[in-house]
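Run 3-methyl-2-oxobutanoate dehydrogenase (2-methylpropanoyl-transferring) through structure prediction, thanks.
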Amino acid sequence: MAVMTIAKAINEGLRAALGAHPSALLMGEDIGDLGGVYRVTEGLKAQFGAERVVDTPLAESGIIGTAIGLALRGYLPICEIQFDGFVFPGFNQITTQLAKIHARSDGLLTAPVVIRIPYGGGIGSVEHHSESPEALFAHTAGLRIITPSNPHDAYWMIQQAVACADPVIVFEPKRRYWLKGEVDVSAVPASPFQAEVLREGTDATIVAYGPLVPVALAAANAAAEDGTSVEVIDLRSISPIDFDTVTESVLKTGRLVIAHEAPTFGGIGGEIAARITERAFLSLEAPVTRVGGFHLPYPTARTEEHYLPDLDRILHSLDTVLAY
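Sure, done. The structure for 3-methyl-2-oxobutanoate dehydrogenase (2-methylpropanoyl-transferring) is below.
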């Protein structure tokens, strides 16, 4: 076991992927000499060279478009979008080209492009640096979307993304980059598209992913002090979603709270709520509730603490479902 931050775990995972796949290369703004604004790619250019760790112009559409071409020629491009809100100049290439190539060619072509996107708030940054756009991409068929919440998953998920034949977006929770945890570098990793039960419980289920997983666990610990047993599920994959694991939990607990940083309106939580209502309606003891951001542009740094879902808001939702 090794103790790493999430940022270091991704760095080591990228190092392992570049070593295992000679055709893999990194592309992004300031990822080479600087090592990325979060230093996630630090040291990789020195080890693998400028031809495999490529500093690109400030042009996300160019990054994604070039990566698609490289993938079609047999390379394994790993793109970094410097901040979540910067991805939209490349949105067209991702949703209308990258996601469609396999189907458009009737399975003849694959485009194994990995797109790393630091996402979410909590870092006190300016506009376009704290978005949670995962639902926009999950709505597009043909993309796989995963998000780690701990260093162990971060280390393995990035390697699994590179090895996947499909395009994969890896949303990295930026305010958790410095979260430390154990990483088993010799483990046989679980599928990145499978949810994980982090804490078992019998009275209610909390489903979260990415940056809100630590908050969900804290809520379960707080509820336990009052005698309430809460099961916590780390979704891990946003597309596809492991509905089987969530359904099995809700059939047991009868209550479900879904938490994510993104606005609840049009968010991933709405899809989960609808599916679980279809699958487990007769086992539900209360309506499914959602905890998320508000349906408004991400606020300024001075007020983001009021925008981000926190412990109190998750506990309030738990109280609501337990009151039925």
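The chain has a mean pLDDT of 97.
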